[in-house]
């Protein structure tokens, strides 16, 4: 049965039009609705990867990392996040000095791992090739993932109490262009412990587990699938 991929249209379909007015336009998020990836083709080219993982990896690449919608991840994508961090938390904030300090190292680290043709751009194929090398059972993910996960947690944890609440998550994700309602919905999904209970605050250990799930869980019910916004596939 062919796999139908609902592209990023979901984020535009759920919210009423009045909620759409923000700086995302300026970041080119509107371009993200274009169907530039043929998911069938990607699946065909990477038969050794679970199609659900491929869909998640493509989605994280396109929505989360490729901030300027250039179809590659490059330094300006990282720089745009730094700029948004400044807009959200202020030019004098602890957050901006932390983001400035960390982002360049994270970018260089990603290049070292993934940029196999050394053009300072990470293409979707390079991204998939990096991720598919990971032995999920043996947990052989590169340190880079844990560094990025820790970076996000520390950036988001403004009150520095070692847990993230929905307001902190929402502010943090807005540095990546995500909308408030979208963040609230995602938080509800990934903070779920069982049918009746959600965590109000996410400790670092839980965050790390969710981050790993977001990238590598093949379980469609894993809460971490929604860490970078609700997925619909
Ligand atoms: Ca880009
Ligand atoms: Ca490259």
- Number-wise, the strands total 2
Q: Globular, elongated, flat, extended or rod-shaped: what is the shape?
A: globular
What's the helical proportion of residues? 40-55%
| End-to-end C-alpha gap | 14 Å
Treating each run of at least 4 consecutive H or I residues as one helix, how many helices?
A: 11
Tell me the CATH architecture. Answer: Orthogonal Bundle
Runs in which pLDDT lies below 50 for 5 or more consecutive residues are: 1-34
The biggest sheet, with number of strands, parallel, antiparallel or mixed sense and barrel status, is: 2 strands, antiparallel
Number of domains: 1
Query: What integer is the average pLDDT?
Result: 86
Percentage of residues in strands: under 5%
Can you summarize this structure?
The protein is mainly α and 233 residues long. 53% of the residues lie in helices and 2% in strands. Bound molecules: calcium ion (CA) (2 copies).
Secondary structure blueprint with pairings:
Blueprint: H1 9-14, H2 24-27, H3 39-45, H4 51-65, H5 75-89, H6 94-114, H7 124-132, H8 143-156, E1 163-164, H9 166-174, H10 180-190, E2 202-203, H11 204-216
Antiparallel strand pairs: 1-2
Helix pairs in contact: 4-7, 5-6, 6-8, 8-11, 9-10
The structure holds calcium ion (CA) (2 copies).
One calcium ion binds at residues 115, 117, 119, 121-123, 126.
């Amino acid at each position: 049965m062919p796999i139908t991929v609902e592209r990023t249209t979901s984020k535009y379909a759920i919210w009423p039009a009045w909620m759409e007015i923000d700086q995302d336009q300026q970041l080119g998020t509107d371009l993200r609705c274009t169907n530039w990836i043929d998911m069938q083709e990607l699946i065909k080219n990477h038969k050794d990867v679970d199609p659900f993982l491929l869909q998640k990896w493509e989605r994280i690449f396109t929505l989360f990392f490729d901030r300027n919608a250039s179809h590659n991840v490059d330094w300006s994508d990282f720089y745009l996040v730094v700029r948004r961090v400044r807009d959200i938390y202020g030019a004098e904030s602890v957050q901006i000095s932390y983001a400035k300090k960390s982002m360049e190292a994270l970018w260089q680290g990603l290049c070292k791992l993934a940029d196999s043709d050394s053009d300072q751009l990470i293409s979707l194929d390079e991204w998939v090739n990096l991720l598919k090398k990971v032995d999920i059972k043996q947990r052989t993910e590169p340190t880079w993932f844990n560094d990025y996960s820790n970076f996000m947690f520390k950036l988001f944890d403004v009150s520095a109490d070692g847990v993230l609440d929905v307001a902190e998550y929402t502010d943090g994700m807005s540095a990546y262009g995500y909308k408030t309602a979208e963040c609230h919905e995602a938080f509800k999904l990934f903070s779920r412990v069982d049918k009746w209970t959600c965590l109000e605050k996410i400790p670092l250990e839980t965050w790390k587990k969710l981050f790993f799930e977001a990238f590598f869980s093949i379980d469609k019910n894993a809460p971490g699938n929604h860490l970078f916004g609700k997925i619909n596939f």
